[in-house]
Every structure is written in structure tokens, then in C-alpha cells.
Amino acid sequence: MRAASGNVVLNELRELIARLDDGARLPTVRELMRTHRVSQATVQEALGQLREAGLLTSQVGRGTYVVKNGAHAVGDDGPRGDRLESLLILSNASLNERCMLVQNHIVEELSRSGSKVVQISYHNTGHLLEILTSIPNFDAAILQSHYESIPIRLLSLLQGKARALVVDGHTVSGVDIDRVGTDWEDALDMAMAHLAGLGHRSVALVSLDSMAQPILTVRRAFDRAGRENGQWRDMRTIMLGGVHNPTHSVGEALRRALSELMDGEGRLPFSAMITLGLSDSFGIRHCLDGLGIDWPRDLAVFILGHHDVPTEHFGTMSIAGSSYLEGARRLVEVIRRRLETPETPPQIVYLECAQTIRESTGERVAERVS
Predict the structure, then answer these.
(1) Are residues 127 and 228 in the same domain?
(2) How many domains does the chain have?
(3) Could you give a GO molecular-function term held by this entry (predicted)?
(4) What is the pTM of this model?
(5) In this predicted model, what pLDDT tens digit does every residue of 116-167 receive, in sequence order?
């Protein structure tokens, strides 16, 4: 009798799935028990068979969802190997708002198709390695790393935990891993061209005191521009020490650095400032106001960041860089492509850079620093 009733439930659920759209949520187990007047075990057994066939996916605490797009049609034998059913997102605890926005978009998009997403934020890489050894494997993993070094051991472990691994925001060298990042040299060129067009001839690049590849790359490009471009009379790099989180303590670190460079009349030896890796525009503004620096009259400020992340510009700072939304979309695209064609060589996807000019760089000026 139980086998017969199980077959009836299974067939009726197949018909229900055929009528529903991809990502539609199924009734709960208790609702199915009442509808079909069967036991919990019978319903769960039927759901289990449909999950094995790739027609359903379940998320703990959220429910069971129909899977159609990219999966087998009703009646197929099993799930396809290129399906993205589970995703692990790892990020350092110092993540900025851009990282959180990327995560939120990916979670929202994948949840509509019933994919399971696990997010882990870590302080200590050694502790993270211990955690990863005890968790199950995933279809794919995203490692968000922007301004900190990535241990090779971590990458190796993640490659063993996921069929597709993509690094978000870091140009990792010497490893065969898919990457999505911003060409910060392009953003730097935009900032310097704009400032030069306004008449500035002295500029400082302010960044985190980090050896991360994106920051090193921009520093070298900045130095190279100073040697090769004769229009810049004074170019200097300022690295902010003691800033462990790009969204915290930026203003105080910047105040200390600028105070040491100001002359007796409170003037700086440069008329423009470009920042990289600092996601605290409020702290930057607070620092300048506290030092009595009138921006943009005394100092033009240009941010290298993400133009669709409000806290990086607060609607007042000129900014050049990429879009977090494009980054989130491209991460998912790269993962799906890797799952579908695992034999293709790893790729580096550079996000398109754009600039938005606001009041922090002001109008065209004559050079103000003698």
C-alpha cells in the first residue's frame, strides 16, 4: 500500500513540476501530506527521488524549489554535472561594502533557481583552512580577496573542494585559476587625465600599506607615469600604515600622513590626491575638514573605487573604477562556464572601468603649488 501511494504522489508531483516555472517553490512537506493524505515518509521519499533526478533542489530553512533551466527535463535519469546547486563564498572579515553587495546579488540570483549558497567570513587564514577541511564539497567557490595576500595552500584546498573556483578582485599570479578583477591602471589613467586637464601638476597617490598585487600594480603605474610624462612636476606615493580594514580608521591614518607634509601655513606640497583601496569617503572628508583643507579649492580628491557603491563616493567624490553589479554577474558567468566546459584554460576577466566626475575635483584651476 505504501509503495502504491508513493507512486501516486511521485507521479502527481511530476505533473505539478511540469506546470510550474523554474525556481517555483513547492508546497511544504506537511501541505503535501494533507493534500495527498499520505505519511511524511512517503512525501520525503518522493521528493528525494525527484531531487536525485535533478528536478528539485532543497534549501534548509527555505524550502524545495523546481529546477528546469539548465537541468534535465521531467523524466530524465539524473542531475547534470554542469548544474550550479551549491556555492561557497569566502571573504576576509575586513570586507568592504562592495564585497557585501556582490554577495547579496549572487545570493538573490541563485536562490531563485534553488541553489544553496554558504557564506563564510574569516579573520585568520589558518583557522579557515581548518574549517574547510571539515565541510562538504561544493559545485563552486568564490574567494573574495582585494588587498590581502592569498596563500597558495588556501587556493589548493579550495580547488579540491569545488569543481569551479574563481577569485574575485585579485590578480593572482602563477596559478591556473579563473579570476574577475578591475584594471586599476585604467582607472588611474582616467583620474590622472582628468586632473591634468584641470591644470594640476602635482599629485599624491594614497593607498593602503599593502603588498597585494592590485595596489603594487597601481603604484608602479603611478611611478612610471611620473618618469614618462613630463607634465607632472611633483608626484609622490603615500602609504597609510595601521589600516587593517579599508572602511575603518582611514581618516585618522590619513590625518597623520598629511599633517607631516603640511607647511607652516597649513598647505600641502601637492594640489591633487588620488586614493586606492580606501572605502571610507566619510573618513577622508572628515580628515580634510579637520585639517582645514578646503576641497577642492586647496586639494582636489579623486577616488579609485566602484562607482555604484555609495559609501565610496557619498555623492560628492569624483571616482573611477568598475561596477560591483557587473562584477557579481561576471562571477556567476565564469562559474557556469567553468562547470559547463571544465577543459577550457583559466581566464582573467577584467571589468570595464568608467568615471563619474563630482565636486571633489572642482573646476579648471591654475597650478596652486609653487
Answers:
(1) no
(2) 3
(3) DNA-binding transcription factor activity
(4) 0.72
(5) 999 988 888 888 888 888 888 999 999 987 666 677 888 888 888 899 999 9
Tell which residue, 320, 305, 279, 332, has the closest CA to residue 105: 332
Which tens digit of pLDDT belongs to each residue from 43-88?
888 888 888 788 888 765 557 878 876 443 333 333 445 678 899 9
Residue 369 lies in a domain: no
Are the beta carbons of 367 and 298 closer than 8 angstroms?
no
The CATH number given to whatever domain includes residue 119 is 3.40.50.2300
